[in-house]
Specification:
Mth169, Chain: A; homodimer; about 30% helix; alpha+beta; 3-stranded antiparallel sheet; about 90 residues
């Protein structure tokens, strides 16, 4: 069974986010007011072949914990859907 | 009115994605089989102050087009929800 997986990785609260801070500082000068709390993270998409959804979730969770995110400074959140094409 | 915005920026189909390719190549050796079509993009979250949802969507769209994404090589997708906390 194929699953389409999206993992969003973002910095934990309290960890400095210079990319986000730069965007936030720049926008008012570029004509966009009202933007705040900018955070820049990663969005990793992939296709996973797994026997069922529970197994797929377990695999993605381990993948995040061990390789995709750095759990000391990053949180990860996954969303998973059954792939449309076989 | 405050909106929580998530913008996902990913490379357009056909644009080389060395980060994704590296992850895809490395995973089988690390014990994860069955992962394919890995793509690495950006996830930008922020809070936007706008009078209503239509105006918020228009602002985020322009923001993406002009600053957050490079439309030559990147696609962007937004999701927007009314902020929980005032």
């Amino acid at each position: 069974m194929k699953f389409d997986v999206l993992v969003e990785i973002r910095l934990r609260p309290g960890i400095a986010d210079p990319q986000g801070a730069t965007i936030e500082r720049a926008l008012p000068a570029l004509g966009f007011a009202g933007v705040s709390q900018v955070g820049v993270g990663k969005a990793i998409r992939f296709t996973l072949d797994a026997p069922d959804e529970a197994e797929a979730r377990a695999q993605v969770e381990e993948l995040c914990r061990r390789f995709l995110a750095n759990p000391v400074i990053e949180d990860s959140e996954m969303s998973l859907s059954v792939g449309a094409a076989p």
